[in-house]
Amino acid sequence: MVLHFQEKGRINPVAAGDRMMADAYGMALDHLVITCVDLVLTYQNRVLLTQRQRPPRASWWLIGGRMMAGEAPTEAALRKASEEANLQDLTADRLRYVGAYSTCFATRHQPPQHHGLHSLNLTYQLELTEAEQGAIVLIPEEYSDWRWVEVTQVAAILAEDVSSDAAIDQALLRVIQDLDHLF
Questions:
Q1: How far is Cα 101 from Cα 117, in angstroms, rounded to an integer?
Q2: What's the rounded Cα separation, in Å, for the pair 126 and 129?
Q3: pLDDT by residue (tens digit) across 98-147?
Q4: Which 8-state DSSP code applies to residue 120?
Q5: Is the pTM of this model over 0.85?
Q6: Angle formed at CA 80 by CA 165 and CA 135, multiple of 5 degrees
Q7: Domains and CATH numbers, the chain
């Protein structure tokens, strides 16, 4: 579990919908490690693999994205589940911490794209109900495809994808391997 501590009186001047100026954000990505949350959505011993459309990972991966300043990791995970997969009314007590993974990408969506980015991914597993599994709607701006697969199929799916990167594939495979203690 990732513990979150926050002093009384902390004021977060940035709302969830606010965005930094593109140049400033690009510079920040050049110099800082960003924190993301990833969600391994599971249903009946299968995992949801998603085909992301744009860098830093324009290949198979998981639901997830950046945390906002002042946001607890579990709050970020629930927000990403809602925003990116249409999973509403989830509660933090259902999230199971899988691990933290450091990923360095060669490219990114934000200019200058060729500078890449470094993220620390706090990863959670969430077992869905049948109704939740059927309610998933991925946002088309982020995802072009998705599949429910047995954990033993993940390596073969990655091997078929010529756009994927072997080092980052290893990160995803490690996440899947670390699920073993959760099933």
A1: 14
A2: 10
A3: 999 999 999 999 999 999 999 999 999 999 999 999 999 999 999 999 99
A4: E
A5: yes
A6: 100
A7: 27-181 (3.90.79.10)
